Every structure is written in C-alpha cells, then in structure tokens.
Amino acid sequence: MNTALLRIEDLKKYFPIRVGLFGKVVGYIKAVDGVSFNVDAGEVVSLVGESGSGKTTIARCLLLLEKPTSGKILYDSEDITQLRGEKLRNYRRSVQAVFQNPFLSLDPRMNVFQIISEPVKNSMKLSREELLEYVSSLLELVGLDKSFLDKYPHELSGGQAQRVAIARAISLKPKLIILDEPTSALDVSVQAQILNLLADLKKELSLSYLLITHDLSIVKYISDRIIIIYLGKIMETGSSEEIFENPLHPYTRILFSSIPDPYRKFGERVILRGEPPSPVNPPPGCRFHTRCPYAIDICRKQEPPEIKSSLIHKVYCWLHTEKHSSETKT
Predict the structure, then answer these.
(1) Domains in the chain, please, with CATH?
(2) CA 299: distance to chain centroid?
C-alpha cells in the first residue's frame, strides 16, 4: 500500500477584498473552501475543473506562494506552513513545479545552462566541469542535446522550452512535481511528446505528480486518480478508470460531454449554461446547483454529504444518497 507523500486537510484560501484609502476589508473571495485530498508516493493525481475553480490557488499554496487561510498541508507528515530553516529548504527542493507557459518561467537573459544550473549551484557542491556534465545529463533525460546549452529562451520552440523547464524542475531530484497546465500552451503534436516524456520520467526517477488541468483527454492518459473541483469545492474523486467508466456527479458528466469521442459515451453532448457564481458570495447548498440540470430542492439548501461508490470513488451529490437514489436512476 502506498504511503501519503502529501496530505491536504480542509484547506481554505480566502482573498480579502479591500476598498478605500485604508484598505478596509469588505468581503472575501473564497478561492478554495475546505478541500482535502492526498498524493501518494509514485502517484499521479489530477485536479480537474473550469477556470476559476481553485486549482491553481491550491498549487500556489502547496508551493508556498500563497499562505493558506486555514487547514493543513502535510508533507512527509510535517505541516509545511510551520517549516523554517533547513526543513523549509528541503521541502522547496523536494517539491518543484512546471508551469503552463515555459517562456514566462524562463529568464530571457539567461541561457539554458544558466537556467538549469542556477538552482543546482545553490544546493550541490559541484565543480564547473561536474556542473556542466550534470546539466548535460539532465538535457539528455528530457530529449535535448548539448547544443542547447548556449541557447536562450527566444531561440527555442515551445516544446523545447518546456523540456528545459522540466529539466530545471528535476535538477534538484524532487519527489513531487506540480504540473500546472503543462501542455495547454503547446501544439497538439508537441503535447503528446511532453506527456510521453513526463510518463517516462515518472518511472525512471520515481516521481509523483499533481497535475492541474481542465483537459480531460490528457488526464485519461497520465493519471492514477482524478479530483473534480468546482468553485473551491471537491465534487467527485476516484481512480482514473472509475471516473472515466462511471462518472457520478452531474458536473463531471458535463465535463465529459465537452470532450470528443471516444470519451463522450454518456448520451448526447450537454452544454454547461451560464457562468460560475461569484466566489465572493457562493450559493448555499451544493455549489453547482445554480447550473445543474438535475438539481432538487435539498441541493439548494444543504451541502451534500460524501457518498462512497467504492473504496476510493466518492461523490458529493444529493442525487446519490439512498433517499434520492430513485431520482438518480430516472
């Protein structure tokens, strides 16, 4: 049985809304509102949802770019928000990130050697020759050769730039990499190459991934487990196989409806109407009820409980409680 490398417990992140000269707080944007999940060693977990659902805010909290409002983030059983000194530095080395647009994450004034070697120089005591050899080996791992060492970001294609970003991410030998839409800025043919590279590196380096995306087609390819999130709340979670074979939440089914066959196999395409409610004033009850075509009265009043379909397949939806199961089947 895998052990939890990362565990998130009731994570909340509220951004204050300030007005006036003195910045009076008049409300909060509830970007993440009570999210709990874990990433096991060697596992790929995908956070899936529309833009504005809170996926990237979760990632920023994990990377300590944002301080959580409340809740715990446990890495190797230690709360990262309480880490200081060497323990904090070790955490930052162990958890790296690959972002959506590689050109925004690569310093245009630095060549590829400098970009990859900079974090290494601060963590490993290597001679110039050893550093050059190490960076060259990292480039080889991501499918590039030594000729790229002296190139600058503007001389790279999108796929090459993302490979450099991946090389930098693995340079400190992390255990977990957060992938924030790592292929969405790339051409479709290049997306497949990057996904294959990530899958190969996972096996070769024993990595865990937290993939943040809205693209269910790439989720199917790489994920062990999927978490569907909407307006800062988890709607459904389960293994990749279970979610794709038997999506339970109406929101999950609508997301599947938006992607091409062969994944869309649950009836005709359903268009998700309207915009998500404001996270400043989220609706009571189920967050999705204002856009759900199957909402019943209780959905508008009470938050749905956790319903277990299997050991790890869970849905938060009133339609799947015993009381309302007959309505689900119709």
Answers:
(1) 4-329 (3.40.50.300)
(2) 27
Cα–Cα dist 208/192, whole Å: 19
- List, in sequence order, the alpha helices (H) in the chain: 55-62, 85-94, 102-105, 112-121, 128-141, 158-170, 188-205, 216-222, 240-245, 250-257, 325-329
From 234, 263, 232, select the one nearest 249 (Cα to Cα). Answer: 234
Q: Can you give the pLDDT of all 330 residues of the chain as single tens digits?
A: 567 899 999 999 999 999 998 889 999 999 999 999 999 999 999 999 988 899 999 999 999 999 999 999 999 889 998 999 999 999 999 999 999 888 999 999 999 999 999 999 888 888 899 999 999 999 999 999 999 999 999 999 999 999 999 999 999 999 999 999 998 878 888 999 999 999 999 999 999 999 999 888 788 889 999 999 999 999 999 999 999 999 999 999 988 887 765 555 555 666 677 778 889 999 999 999 999 989 999 999 999 999 998 888 999 999 988 645 544 444
**Total residue count of the chain as it appears in this document:** 330
What pairs with residue 329 in β-bridges? none
Q: Locate 110 and state its tokens.
A: 């630095």
Give CA–CA dist 185/208, Å, rounded. 22
Question: 38 near 224, Cβ under 8 Å?
Answer: no
Residue 162: which of 137, 183, 140, 139 has the closest Cα? 183
Structure tokens at 138: 């990292």
- CA 140 – CA 150 distance, rounded (Å): 15
Phi, psi of 108 (to 5 degrees): -65, -15
List the strands of the sheet with 4-19, edge to edge. 24-40, 4-19, 70-75, 78-79
Q: Determine the Cα–Cα distance for residues 321 and 328; give it in Å rounded to an integer.
A: 9
Helix axes 128-141, 158-170, angle to 10 degrees: 120
Q: β-strand 176-180 against 314-316: which pairing, if any?
A: unpaired
